[in-house]
Amino acid sequence: MYYYPEASDSHQFSKDSLHHQLLQISSKLVNLGLNRGTSGNCSVRFGEHFLITPSGIPIEELSTHDMVEMDFSGRVMNSGKPSSEWRFHKDILKSRKEIQAVVHVHSTFATTLSCLHKEIPPFHYMISVAGGDSVRCAPYALFGSQELSDFALEALTGRSACLLANHGMIALGKSLEHALSVAVEVELLCEQYCHALQTGEPQLLSSKQMNAVLDKFKDYGRWK
Prior knowledge:
Helix content is 36%, strand content 14%. The protein is α+β, with helices and mostly antiparallel strands.
């Protein structure tokens, strides 16, 4: 069973510590089967800048020195080439001040549903971990493009996770560990929904029922 830590503000960490956390989370994403090879990427806020994983380096070759620092105009502040998806990382962190970290994965079940252009409806109360009564699916756009970032921002309105059509998933958090925990939970929901669809048409929870869950989550453990 995966351990879900309490969310923590990344401002309390030094740059070296955040570099280490990016490497650690990137390794966990592969070990948990959420990413493979060079797929996926992560970022974390650092003051007026953010740190992001580099482009095209396999996890077994990745080191803390490879992490790229950028400002919110999209300028690279050190050496290195940022992930091709740096635009939606920048735009999310710039527009969502409460968010400290972004995790992007190409996990199996989230990607499966994204290829069907399906959002995840309230078939299970844990949909609330994404901040609402659904996990939306953003329309398809070329990876790394501004269009993809714009679609992602819209799908993430009032949410902490979304699917990207024919692509994967984005998860947000108050820390890298928190964003990882959201990604793990949403991937599990995607797996459960895929299995439910194979059996029949899931019975969905009502708006009233989901609002009651959302209210309860405001004071519930790691999701508060």
